[in-house]
Each structure stands twice: as structure tokens, then as C-alpha cells.
Design brief:
Strand content: 15-25%
Shape: elongated
CATH class of the largest domain: Alpha Beta
Structural class: alpha/beta
Number of domains: 2
Radius of gyration: 26 Å
CATH topology of the largest domain: UDP-N-acetylmuramoyl-L-alanine:D-glutamate ligase
Strand order of the largest sheet: 5-4-1-8-9-10-11-12-13
Helix content: 25-40%
Number of helices: 16
CATH superfamily of the largest domain: Ribokinase
Distance between the termini: 32 Å
CATH architecture of the largest domain: 3-Layer(aba) Sandwich
Amino acid sequence: MIENMHFGNIAIVGDVILDRYISGRTDRISPEAPVPVLVHEHLNTVAGGAANVAANAAALGARVALVGLVGADDHATCLARTLARWDHIDTHGLVQDTHRQTTTKTRVMSGRQQIVRIDNEDTHAPAPAIQAELVEKAYMAIDGADILICSDYGKGVLDDGVLEKIITRARARNIPVIVDPKRTSFAAYRGATLVTPNRQELARATGLPVRTDEQIIAAARMAGAQFGGSVLVTRSEEGMTLWRDDGAVSHVRSQAAEVFDVSGAGDCVVATVAAILSAGHSMETSVTIANTAAAVAVGKLGTTTVSRAELSHALMRDMPDSGKCVSLEQAAAMARDWRHHGARVVFTNGCFDLLHPGHISLIQGAAAQGDKLIVALNTDRSVRRLKGESRPIQDERARATVIGALRNVDLVVLFDQDTPEEAIRAILPDVIVKGADYREDEVVGGDIVKASGGRVVLVDIMPGRSTTSLVRQAGGEPRAETDTTA
């Protein structure tokens, strides 16, 4: 999926940071004070803050114009060398301020354990002449961009005046604006398309509790009202929640198997959302892919980037062999994205236990009704409730792999309920297809689809073809049913 994406140009304005990692080992306590003694082994420097956002976007293949402030010091030189590793980052927008030091975070590490962090920074607003140069550089970057990221680490670059000017400039050119916030109120981000707080930042900006899904949604709604846009809440091990300014809500659960370090994970999310949006995809698809990127990022030690190859591998890793089985949230996001690009989405469902000609006939008939076909499969528990304890013959992973291997099938999604109504409400297909042994008024979800302008199609079936009949034949029993989705 991501290998074939063509990303646009991204302007990034904000607080650039140099992240330094002093690594070593500790095996004794100092005789001078009750503190560990670190035997220094290695020093590593990487881009942080807005510079890390730029590095992550460039790692995916996007072209980036980076705007920010640096000092006239060795750390600025080191940051420039670090950014020079990326071919797609234009650093002409970095303005040198001789009256401030380059923001630097130095982390002292013993193995994978962080012992202490040392910050060097000036957080005051720059002098008017420096700020004017900064805004001019930002305008130049925005004028050549498809999307703007404001990376606010509270280090003095993005004060209220600068934010108002650059957001206004971007919106006047119909350029989406994404903000990674660091404010006690999001009012200064008015005009932004999307703000991406973590749970703590959301609580600080709204004063509301943010433990449950319902509390997150309520707080996101209040936060959105402060600036007039959508809110993406990053929730660490619980994934992400996207609250759209039209009231729509999407929850994307975390895929991280093991968390080593959350440093820079928010930068990775913002960069990935912006890159996928710049390629013409929907907000929901962008968030789903960014969630996978974040899972890769937190599995690494220190501030880091996620490459296009790593992200592509991660997107495929958790799918069955067919590569098409996704969560309901992912299926809904992809369906919205397909419709956004003019495709007609078709939906059918069933147990699809032992694949037979009746199944193939149904799927071929469904695929002929549109451009993209989503097949919803009953989980093993759902099949047992419907068919009895002896079923299914094949477990849900095997069934999903077989159905997903069919050329006409674009996505497979599992549902645990007795009917696919919840899946249909989430996906909202343009067409629902069932066998002609149903009446149209018997098709679950038909009323939902027709209410949104879609239709129900009944396709001819092959009489006498079902999993149940195959099982009975194998046991020497006569065929007795014609449910093509059994």
C-alpha cells in the first residue's frame, strides 16, 4: 500500500531540538555521593522536536522545508550535520539567533535505562528582527507546500503572533494545518485543521478527565471548540482517538508489542499523518497508518525515525498470509478513503467455512457490483452460535486467509456478532450483496445502506452448494440445504 504512495511537499515550522544520547554502563556507586558512576562508551546525536518531525517525514519519502531557530554554537553545527543525512530536507529556513542557544536535550543512558536528562534551552521570544525573518522563511516554505505542520515544543518559536500569521497564510492557500501542541489552551491554534495532543496535553488544555473512551471524546470535543478543528488524541498503549469537527469518532487500538522508549513517538505520528494526507488519502486512513508507525517507533530506543520499508513491513506483519484481513476500524477508514477517490464499495458476508463453487459465484457476483469488495467473516464463536459446536471446520484465520487470497476480494474483516450490522454501520458500503435465496427486506443492514443512498443486490446462487451439504456428503448423508454462505 505505502510503497506506491507519492507524497507531497511538507512545510514544518517549530522548535528544532538536538537530542544527544550519552551511553555507557554502570556497575558501581560513586564514593563522592550516592549516585551511579557511568563508564562512558558512546555519544549519539539525532534530530529532535520539529527537526525529528522533518526526519520522519523525509524517511517516508516526503520532501520537507524546515523552519526554526538555532543558536550560533556547536550544537547548531551538529544539528545541521545530522539533518544533512536526509536528502529531502531543505534547511534554508533555519534562522540563526546569536542571542540564544540551540535547544538541546542530553540523555544519559545506562543500557536501556535513562538515568538523567539535561536540557539546554532559551524559551523567550526572539527579537522582532529575528521573528520577522522567521515568518518570512515560513511564508516561503508554506507557499511551496501541500501541508503545514506546526511543531510546538514551547521553546519560543511559535508565539501567538507567529502562529496566527502562518496558519492564516496556509488556510488562505487551502493548505491543511496540523499542530503538535504544547499549550494550556488550544485557542492560539485557531484555524488549524488538526491538533494532536497526547492524553496529558488534552487534560491540561481542557481540565477534564481523560481515562475512558467517553471522557476522551468529551475532552476532544471541548478542545476542538477552542480552535475550530479536529483532534487526534495519542493514548500511548491504548492507541489513538480521532474526533472530527463534524462529530465523527474513530478509535484505533495500539499495535505496539513492546515499548522501549516513547521519545519522539508524537513526532512520528504527526509526520506520518501529514505524509499520508499529502498523498491524497483520508484523515482516517492517515491516522490508521500513523498508529502503525508509532508502534514501530516506540519499539526502538531513543528519538528515532521510521522508514518507508519499516512501515510497509509493519502494515503487513500483523495480517494473515492473504495480507487483506484488517480490523473493523481499518476497514471503515479504507472504505472512506476509497469513496473519497470515487470508488464504489461493495459488502457481503458469511461464514465461508469450506470454500465451494457457491461461495465463488457469490463473491464474483458481488465484485461485479462495484470497484472494491469487502467480505465480512463470522468469527469462530459466531459460527458456533449459528451452526452448532461442530462448526466451523476451519478456524477464522484459515477462512480469512482463503477468502483474502481470492483476486476479487480487497479486504476481509471479522465480526463476532450474530449479524454484520455493526460492521455495515461502520463501513457504510455503497452496495450490499446477498444470495437470491434472501428477500431484500431480509438482508441485515439493507435499511442502513439504502438510507445513505446505497442499494441491496441479490445475486443468483448455485442450488445445493453449501458447507453443510459437503460435510454430510463426506459422512454419507444426503444434501439438504442451499445456503451459499455456510
